[in-house]
Amino acid sequence: MKITYVHHSAFLADLWSAALLFDYTQGRLPDLDTNKPLFVFASHRHGDHYSDKIFDLGNGPREVHYVLSDDISRKKIGEEQSRHISFVKPGETLTLTYGTEGSLALEITTFKSTDEGVAFLIKVDGTVIYHAGDLNNWRWEGEPEEWNRNMAKNYSVEVDKLAGEKIDAAFLPLDPRQEENFYLGFDEFMRKAEVVHAFPMHCWDDYSVIERLKSMEVSIPYRDRIAMIERDGESFVLEQEPQIHE
Question: Which residues form a coiled coil (predicted)?
Fold first, then answer.
């Protein structure tokens, strides 16, 4: 499996039988085998996670499927494009078949975001991939303490559903705007799910937060599993599982 960090919260996962593109709004996409189907996911309607330019990817010979959060407006989506779209709500499980006579399947489970839309858990080719979208513990200085407590509680409710789940690649927010609270959601997820490779996102081009987390004592159990992203377009080939500390 090859993972390419495209921009902000956009990642491309190139697997054996299909390619998965998450929350694409801008940035150069690597060349892909046009004989391999492309599944395009959009977690919610925010402009840093969704752009209608994703429908340009359907112009050509490649088989393209779209999986969009149902908070995304249908107004600018044409009839032809609609035939290739599955709209999803939180708490749903969807199976999409593809390949010769539908011989292959991609299983999608959605989770309720603590902001807008959904997070995705995808099982395909014997691989499990998670994209958080804006599901995070968005604790902010200046918000009432009760608001922050409810935020943490709502986040835990969703993450607890993934407790013990082995995830080969997880794309998780690590937002420097949260200041000293920037790591809370990331840390909780890594402690509850069995993540093999973790990819920080939503960093607003400030990749120093990745090294900042890796240098903190709290990350000792999982710091070796965090990818050190430094630029748009960076790729990672995942072949062997790194050591998981007990």
Answer: none
Q: Which of 91, 142, 116 is nearest to 9 (CA)?
A: 116
pLDDT score for 241? 44
Residue 52: CA atoms inside 13 Å, Cβ hemisphere, count? 9
Provide the 8-state DSSP code for 226: B
R_g of the chain computed on alpha carbons: 17
Chain segment 41-70, per-residue pLDDT in tens: 999 999 999 999 999 998 888 899 999 999
Q: For residue 239, how many other CB atoms are within 10 A of its CB?
A: 6
CB 28 within 8 A of CB 233: yes
- Compare 78 and 165 and report the one with higher pLDDT: 165
Cα–Cα distance between 141 and 138 in angstroms, integer?
Answer: 10
What's the rounded mean pLDDT across residues 207-211?
98
> Which structure tokens are listed for 51?
């752009």
Burial of 3 (0-12, 13-18, 19+ CB in 10 A): buried
Residue type, 109: T
pTM of the shown model:
0.95
What mean pLDDT comes out for the span 78-82? 82
- Cα-based distances in Å from 1 to 19, 108, 131: 10, 18, 16
Are 132 and 119 in contact, with CB atoms under 8 Å apart?
yes
